[in-house]
From TrEMBL:
Keyword Transferase appears in the UniProt entry: yes
MF terms (GO), sorted A to Z: DNA-binding transcription factor activity; methyltransferase activity; sequence-specific DNA binding
PROSITE patterns reported in the protein's UniProt record: WRKY
GO cellular component: nucleus
Major localisation: nucleus
Keywords (A to Z) from UniProt: DNA-binding, Methyltransferase, Nucleus, S-adenosyl-L-methionine, Transcription, Transcription regulation, Transferase
Protein name: WRKY domain-containing protein
Annotated localization: Nucleus
Amino acid sequence: MAAGNNYRVPLDFHEKEFADHSSAFELPADQFLMFDDYWVEEDPPSDASGSVQNPVYQANEVVESGGSGSSHPDGSSRTRERESGNERREVRERVAFRTISEIEVLDDGFKWRKYGKKMVKNSPNPRNYYRCSVDGCPVKKRVERDNEDPSALVLAAAAHCTLRRHSEADAIYTGAQFATRRCDTEAHTAAVGRPASLRLQAVFRTPAVRPPPIPLREMPIAIKTDEPKAQHYELPTSFFKLVLGKNLKYSCCYFSDKSNTLEDAEVAMLELYCERSQLKDGHSVLDVGCGWGSLSLYIAQKYSNCKVTGICNSTTQKAYIDQQCRDLQLQNVEIIVSDISTFEMEASYDRLFSIEMFEHMKNYKDLLKKISKWMKQDSLLFVHHFCHKAFAYHFEDINDDDWITRFFFTGGTMPSANLLLYFQDDVSVVNQWLVNGKHYAQTSEEWLKRMDQKSASIKPIMESTYGKDSAVKWTVYWRTFFIAVAELFNYNDGEEWMVAHFLFKKK
C-alpha cells in the first residue's frame, strides 16, 4: 500500500456500486484512445444563466468508459454546409466518455464555465456546452443525457485542430502536482489539449529532469522490484503483527460502521472480496501478491473445499503463512515465492485475486495478459487497487518532497480510477466499484494508533533493523507515512483519492 477516468464517490461514508453492464466498459481497441471521426462544433446559443451570470462550475464527476452517443454529420453534409456559407468549425480530435450521474457538470480536476445550451433533434434532453475557465486554454466539452438511458451522461471533449500543440516543455508539473491542483495556465492547457493517448497516461515530468513519459504499454511489467521489497518488508513480521490487525491485512479495510474495530474492518473487506468475486466453495483460487496471507487464509478457513495458491515475493511472508497453516491445521494453502513480473506457470484457476499489487506494476497490458493465461474460460479476476479519481501518475524521486517514493514506494504507480478500462486486450470488465477514501484514512489512523500504543515493543525492532543511531529517525518515517496515507485518502471527504475494485472475465 502507499500514500484516478473519474467515478464520483458518494458523499456518505460508504462506497457506491456502479452499473454492472460489461458493454458500458467495452471499447474497441482502435477507438478507446483516439476517435477519428469529426466532431463538428457549432457556437450554441447561450442560455440565460450562461450569458448573464457566466458562472464557473467546479466539476464533480466523470467516467471514461464508453463511446459518445452524439450524432455526427457525414462528409456530404459538411460539404453542403461549406458551399452554403454555413461552414462550422471542425475539431478532429476528441475523446468521448459515458457515466451514470445525477448532475451534469463533470469533474476531471479542472473548472469549467458553461457558455450555452441547445436542444438536439429527436432528443428531449438539452446539450450543454462548457469551456475551460483557465485563460488561453482552448479545450471545450459538451454534455448531454443519453437518449436511450436518461440516467447516463455522454461527454465529448476536444481542442481545435488549428491550435498550436504544446510541447513537452510546456508540461512542467508532475502528475501528483496536477492531482493536488498545483498547476499553472501553460501546464493546464498542455494537459487537457494534448493528444488523448498521452493525456490518458496523465504523467507529466519536468523535461530538464526527465525525458518524455513512456506509455505504460511500452514499459516493463514492473521496475525496481527489489527496492520496494526492502523498503516495506525489511522490518520483521513482528513489527506488522504489532501495527496491523489480526489478519495482517496490509491494505485498505472496510469500516461499514465508524465504531468498528480494525479487525472487524479487515474481515468486512475480505468478505466484500469474496462476495464481489462470486467465490464459491470448491473453487480453485490464486492470490497474486498475497502479502501475509490475509485473503488466502480467510478463504482457506471459510471455504474449506477451496484450494488456495498464493504468490508473494518475500520468504518471510511465506514463512509466516506456512506457520499459520500449521497452527490452524490448514491443508489447502500453497505459497509460492516469486517475482510476478517474471513468474510463469501452466496451472489455471477459477477465481483470481490481486489486492494492492497493481500499484507496484507498470505495464498493465502485459500483466493482465500474463494473468489471463492462468484463467479458465469461465474464471473471474478480482482486482483491488488504490487510485486518484482523475489522474494516473508515477511515484518518482525528483526532489526532496518525494520522500514517500524514496523510502516507501520506489517504482510505484498511482492509477486513476478508470485506468484499467484501457487495458482490456485479454480480459474484459464485468463490473467496477469505488470505495470512498475515508475507509483507507481510518485504516491508516488505526495503524498509527497501534504503533503509538506499542511504541515500547516497537523500539527494539527499529533498533535491530535500522541500528540504534537511526531507530528514532525510522520510527518518525513510519509514523509520518501512516499520517500521510490518512491525510491523503481523507482529503476532499474521501472523494479525491480512493480505492477501486474491478471484476474481469477472460476474453
